[in-house]
Amino acid sequence: MSEYLLETKDLKKPYVTKKGTADAVKGISFHVKKGEIFGFLGANGAGKSTTINMLTTQLLPSGASILYDGRDLTGKAQVIRRKIGAVAQHNNLERHLTAEENLCFHGRYFGMDKADIKARLVELLQKFGLYERRKDDVGSCSGGMAQRLRIARAMLHRPEILFLDEPTTGLDPNYRQILWDQMLAMNKEGTTIFLTTHYMEEAENFCEHVAIMKKGELLLYGTVKELEEKTGTKSLNDVFLVLTNHDGVDGRQSANGEE
Fold it and tell me: What is d(CA 211, CA 26) in angstroms, rounded to the nearest whole number?
């Protein structure tokens, strides 16, 4: 058994432009340890979402290997999907269904039996403070409640690793704290978390290892302390700005996710 839950080797993804082809992701390699919170950072357009889409089977990689627990599962979408949970940036809940129905639908997709689905959804809705709202259509949920429901749904089938793509963007400080309390509890129970965020303090406080991308390339990987030492800086925010040449400020968000 590998000590790494996830490994990538020379992960690439080209895309077509008016001038020909270019690489959105340029042959990156990294690994994620079992049970850690892994931070995956970069300015908008750095290639983070493309990378996550390949790791979660939404895109097929080119010239690469994706290993889960030491097994090369490149292209084996069904096997990978049973190992992962994913929460994208956009709200992809079925808005015409209730919170409870959203979870049931997800459980059936993964082949869970009815008794297991019922027990698991009660457990998760209670854990995320949503049990009293289980019969409500999700279209009536606030942004924070919908985000908690999306994470609960992703956890329903007991994934080994949870991919969170900017999970706290747009949430007020109270909801951010609630989500982090829940995510840290899941991690303590053994769930590996793969996190992208524009809030540098989240990665600095919670991530064991951090990788920083720019224009499809992996610039640096290591602990926050290692990255600070390599760049001669004193905070992850400064590491980010030095490595990306202040590309984190793109007219929409700063490196800390502020408008």
Answer: 14
User: Is residue 40 domain-resident?
Assistant: yes
Nearest-angstrom CA–CA distance, 153 and 93:
9
**Selection from 8, 40, 81, 27 nearest residue 197 by Cα:** 40
Local confidence pLDDT in tens for the 259 residues of the chain = 678 999 999 999 988 888 888 889 999 999 999 999 999 999 988 999 899 999 999 998 887 889 999 998 888 888 999 999 998 777 778 888 999 999 999 999 999 999 999 999 999 999 888 899 899 888 888 888 888 889 899 999 999 999 998 888 878 888 788 888 888 998 999 999 999 999 999 999 999 999 999 999 999 999 999 999 999 999 999 999 999 875 544 333 333 333 3
Question: Rounded distance, CA 247 to CA 243, Å?
Answer: 9
Please list, residue by residue across 110-142, b when 16 or more beta carbons sit within 10 angstroms of its beta carbon and e when fewer do: eebeeeebeebbeebbebbebeebbeebbeebe
* Whether pTM exceeds 0.90: no
For residue 216, the domain's CATH number is 3.40.50.300
Sheet holding 217-222, edge to edge: 84-87, 161-165, 192-196, 37-42, 209-214, 217-222
Number of folded domains in the chain?
1
Apex 231 CA angle, 225 and 234, nearest 5: 55
